[in-house]
Specification:
Elements: H1 2-11, E1 26-29, E2 36-40, H2 44-60, H3 87-96, E3 100-102, E4 105-109, E5 112-115, E6 119-124, E7 127-134, E8 137-144, H4 152-169, E9 171-175, E10 180-182, H5 187-194
Parallel strand pairs: 1-4
Antiparallel strand pairs: 2-9, 3-6, 4-5, 6-7, 7-8, 9-10
Helix pairs in contact: 4-5
């Protein structure tokens, strides 16, 4: 499965020593890597079709307790690294929006963990934006924890963050967990997503 190539590349230069937590460090489980990812707008048609296929596959292979097979999705036709988005531009944008930047980032599973090199996190409360870089450009760009907030002030800030990313960098958000693509240039879609409402596709 091609998505695992990205994970392997992310970890290629990682320090595989046991994780010693720093108070400001961020950890993500390897299964969440790019599960809710920013993707170039040119992939819109592909994403809608692929989301439908993933959803149909999941329904077919769910036995009531778990899944009997795994869907092997390919890489997106146009990857975010193909857009050559400068890291310093997104870094500046997110900091200007008031997000807290974290440079100590770890991943793993179970009791195994490792430090991720060239990976950064930007936080709003417990919501997190992850970026990994290849030199000076963005290689992977994903989020965690954006959809479960009751606090209206935080929701409004998250909406502004997503809208800014969508408009300034021409990106979509695809949530592979719920097989949905969110047009970040449409505030109504962002609001439905953050409010965990059904989106019309």
């Amino acid at each position: 499965m091609n998505i695992w190539n990205s994970i392997k590349n992310l970890l290629k230069n990682s320090n595989e020593d046991k994780w010693t937590p720093d108070k400001d460090a961020v950890y993500f489980h390897e299964d969440s890597f790019c599960q809710v990812e920013f993707i170039p707008r040119e992939n819109m048609f592909y994403l809608k079709k692929e989301n439908q296929e993933v959803d149909q596959f999941a329904r077919k292979h769910f036995d009531g307790l778990g899944y009997t097979d795994v869907y092997a999705r390919d890489e997106n036709p146009i990857k975010i690294i193909d857009k050559k988005i400068a890291f310093n531009k997104i870094d500046h944008t997110l900091i200007k929006l008031g997000l807290k930047k974290v440079v100590e980032v770890y991943s793993g599973y179970g009791s195994t963990s490792w430090k991720c090199e060239n990976t950064f996190v930007y936080k709003v409360d417990e919501a997190e934006i992850f970026i990994s870089t290849d030199g000076e450009i963005i290689k992977d760009f994903w989020i965690e924890g954006f959809r479960f907030y009751e606090d209206g002030e935080i929701k409004n800030k998250l909406k502004k963050v997503l809208s800014t990313i969508g408009n300034e960098f021409d990106l979509l958000l695809n949530d592979w967990n719920i097989t949905a693509v969110i047009d970040l240039k449409k505030e109504s879609e962002i609001e439905k997503y953050l409010n965990e409402e059904t989106l019309d596709y």
